[in-house]
Amino acid sequence: MPRLARAFVKTGLVCFMLSLLLGLFMAFQWLPLPGMEPLFWHLLMVGWITQIIFGVSMWMFPGRNRSEGFWVQKWGWFTYILLNTGLLLRVVAEPLNYLSESPVWNLLIILSACSQAAAAVTYTVELWPRIQSKQQRREQRKKKRKRRKADRQKPNRERTN
Amino acid sequence: MPTVSRWMIRASLVYLLAGFIIGAAILISKAYPSYSSVWSLLPIHIEMSIFGWIIQLTMGTAYWILPRYLKGTARGNPTTARIMVIIFNAGILVNVFSFMNILPSTAIVLGRLLEVLAVILFIALHWQRAVSYNK
């Protein structure tokens, strides 16, 4: 399992636990803060379900780059960072925005919204070209092989020249 | 990946983008209550994110990944599968248009009916594929 998928799944599991704990706290009214219900639903549906879908699809869909590293899998890592930054900012800023009138919370809420929407964009950028038929996949592999062959022959040609 | 799965997964990505952008607008309106009119988009955000994104991606991936038939067409009747995709997305769109007041609110019944029909077709297509070929 690649590092990126592990990061998505483990963070997803943490969000799953947090959302259920939040649900429990809400049921027993141990956390009398406003705006807890949308947080519960978003930790569950975005933090857990969407996050696990992101991680598993980036791992399982055809055309994955097998080498590890931030820049090799940049769209995947951008998605991970943007989604979780957005969620974290929301968890902090949304309840505090109800309690305090400081414009900082408004700014954090805007950042959170933009960050999560940007995560959807980077995920689409990563996954869209990987939705391929067998035929398209074969052609892509052929092209890759040809490119590699040409790259290998390049230094030889340069040496003979 | 079969054509039906590619259609469903691509459509689910489009719904993901739309659903998240609408969600972002609703979240921003919490910081600026003067833009609270975007709250009317909440049912569209839920419909797109749950049915359009999560459920459709799951259905598309299941159609691709579940064990195939050893005889005949690998994933059952392809025409039925195509009809399933069309009906499911028609259901989502009818609901979305109804939430936007482009269609009357009673159209939600039609939208939900179309979604149920699509799920019946999905179950019919996949019931026999939930199988193990190991002895």
TrEMBL record, chain A:
<feature type="transmembrane region" description="Helical">
    <location>
        <begin position="75"/>
        <end position="93"/>
    </location>
</feature>
<feature type="compositionally biased region" description="Basic residues">
    <location>
        <begin position="139"/>
        <end position="151"/>
    </location>
</feature>
<feature type="compositionally biased region" description="Basic and acidic residues">
    <location>
        <begin position="152"/>
        <end position="161"/>
    </location>
</feature>
<protein>
    <recommendedName>
        <fullName>Cytochrome C and Quinol oxidase polypeptide I</fullName>
    </recommendedName>
</protein>
<keyword id="KW-0472">Membrane</keyword>
<feature type="region of interest" description="Disordered">
    <location>
        <begin position="134"/>
        <end position="161"/>
    </location>
</feature>
<keyword id="KW-0812">Transmembrane</keyword>
<dbReference type="InterPro" id="IPR036927">
    <property type="entry name" value="Cyt_c_oxase-like_su1_sf"/>
</dbReference>
<keyword id="KW-1133">Transmembrane helix</keyword>
<feature type="transmembrane region" description="Helical">
    <location>
        <begin position="105"/>
        <end position="128"/>
    </location>
</feature>
<feature type="transmembrane region" description="Helical">
    <location>
        <begin position="12"/>
        <end position="33"/>
    </location>
</feature>
<feature type="transmembrane region" description="Helical">
    <location>
        <begin position="39"/>
        <end position="63"/>
    </location>
</feature>
TrEMBL record, chain B:
<feature type="transmembrane region" description="Helical">
    <location>
        <begin position="109"/>
        <end position="127"/>
    </location>
</feature>
<feature type="transmembrane region" description="Helical">
    <location>
        <begin position="86"/>
        <end position="103"/>
    </location>
</feature>
<dbReference type="InterPro" id="IPR036927">
    <property type="entry name" value="Cyt_c_oxase-like_su1_sf"/>
</dbReference>
<keyword id="KW-1133">Transmembrane helix</keyword>
<keyword id="KW-0812">Transmembrane</keyword>
<keyword id="KW-0472">Membrane</keyword>
<feature type="transmembrane region" description="Helical">
    <location>
        <begin position="44"/>
        <end position="66"/>
    </location>
</feature>
<feature type="transmembrane region" description="Helical">
    <location>
        <begin position="12"/>
        <end position="32"/>
    </location>
</feature>
<protein>
    <submittedName>
        <fullName>Cytochrome C and Quinol oxidase polypeptide I</fullName>
    </submittedName>
</protein>
